User: Fold BAR domain-containing protein from Zygosaccharomyces mellis.
Amino acid sequence: MSFKGFTRAVARAPQNFRQKMHMGEQVEDPVYEDAERRFKELELEVKKLSEESKRYSQAVNGMLNHQIGFAQAMEEIFKPISGQMSDPNATVPEDNPEGIEASEQYKALVSELQETLKPDLGLIEDKIVKPCHELLKTIGYIRKMATKRNHKKLDLDRRNNTYKKYETKSNPSPKDEEKMFKAQAELEVAKHEYDYYNDMLKDQLPQLFSLEAQFVQPLFVSFYYMQLNIFYTLYTKTGEMKISYFDMSTDIVEAYHYKKGNVEEQCDSLTITKFKLGYSKAKLEMTKKRYGSGSQSPTDPSSAFSSPTSPEAQLANADTSAPGAAPSGYISPTSYGSHPGFTSPQSGYSQPSYGMPESAPPSYSTAASPYTTATTSPVASTFHPPVAAAPAVETVTALYDYQAQAPGDLSFPANAVIEIVQRTQDTNEWWTGRYNGQQGVFPGNYVQLNKI
Assistant:
């Protein structure tokens, strides 16, 4: 904006404010106001016509590009995962070679359609988008003319209010009369300029509306025929598509359900599809408990899933003992007092065998064994302590299928009844149970406790 234009904008600001607040006298022309309202609608709709025609051309291209992308995605999904990427000949086509071939054929067909439809899409750009841009340029010139007319209206209202102020003043002084004559001259100039722009727009805007209708009519007809040609090409090319993978003789919905089958049930049966919060954390905590406080190295595969009381561990401990001594943790199959609930009053005591060094470690049981000699008591041999009632076995019911992820895990199907060996109060941790003669650990959030 030039300095002159800035000065005029500052001078018009008070009148612009009064006009918005409907203060003072204002010039009104209903004929022009109706034409200006119609002109605003024309300007808006021409912009929309240009944008929508451009979007249509982009949408057709985008649709074809999306179809190619869809075919590429299906081709990748159908490819098997076996084989080495460095050696394409090692790939085993074990999945869906027919689907891969159909995806390639479909992609080639859509690429051919893109080349075929390029001239039609180019016609939309040349016959609709570009003419709309030319019309928008013309509308822009008219908008500048309407803005000029509005500025002249502000000047006219401003000059008119100034003249009215001096004209209605009682007992004007000679200086006031001089200012009134000056305001009257400025008012006549402002009215002449306003009438010039206002009358020109009132006369020529209706002519523009008539010409606009004649201008848009061939665009509409051309757009219709171009659309028809595009749809016909898409229909004929896809109808002539000879891909045996697509069966067009059956109903679409029936064919979909037939090909789908029970894939959802099969996917739901996979353990990895039932991720629950805390599963990995509980697995890690159970692994730490399994190894104990540093007694075994978690990186040793030979000891990763062996129990500290397993026969291998006992034999390993026996190798470090003195010759002739009982292995560490050994218990004789013949219990003292021949009763399963009996506990020896001399538990922890053992006498070394004859001929063995006295430095041999004592046995952990006083029962008769090849390694130790115990002194029996007549009283102890005839004593039978009361047998306590066996506690009720706690059981759980499986909510989901679980397949063992590592040695030592317990596998079970849904609705299986599992006997609890050891559990915690937190269902996000790992519990120990027995099912179908097998004992192992399983996630506690896969089961539900049964009432005893």
In short: The domain at 395-449 is CATH 2.30.30.40 (SH3 type barrels.). The two ends are 90 Å apart (CA to CA).
